Description:
Blueprint: H1 2-17, H2 21-37, H3 42-62, H4 64-68, E1 70-75, E2 78-85, H5 88-99, E3 106-113, H6 122-138, E4 147-152, E5 155-162, H7 165-176, E6 183-190
Parallel strand pairs: 2-3, 5-6
Antiparallel strand pairs: 1-2, 4-5
Helix pairs in contact: 1-2, 2-3
Amino acid sequence: MKLVASLLFALSSLFLLSGCTPTVILGGAAIGGVAVAEERSVGTVVDDATIKVQVMNAIFQESEPLFTSTSTTVIAGTVLVTGEVPNPEDRVTISRLIWGVTGVKEVHNEITVAGSENSSSFASDSLITTKLKLQLLRDPQVYNINYSVETVNATVYLMGIAQNEAELNRVKAHAKDISGVRSIVSYVKMKSDT
């Protein structure tokens, strides 16, 4: 009952904060639907969505080009930021901005600097991500909704909650099987640890 009351309060608060009521209704319904399917609680999903919006807003307020060149994923207060920026100082700026957001527990800054040896093409990274997501979707032994996949410069970044070590090993094996993958970085937590 407490969970339902909290969800209703959060959704009603969103109505007061936005002039776009249909968008808020759909967004709230989507968050609720995701929370039911995932291992995270409704409260955690709402908190993560709030953190993501605040992080994106902070980066946008700092620099629109930085905003458009980065991608953010938030799971259980852990933020993964990927992308490519023009100089090393921008990486530091983005980390500082993320740590300034309330609720952030951990930051994984995997942004690369343009022109470095790690710099690669967006198209091939997108293809790797799409192939991996499709493989996870097709694997009945992987609860794919619990995983977030980002690929930057042929490095696959995994975030999420694994049911167990065997499932995580399957996810990593799928990633290794994709042509063009240079390395895999896992920030996946075990369900038993959450």
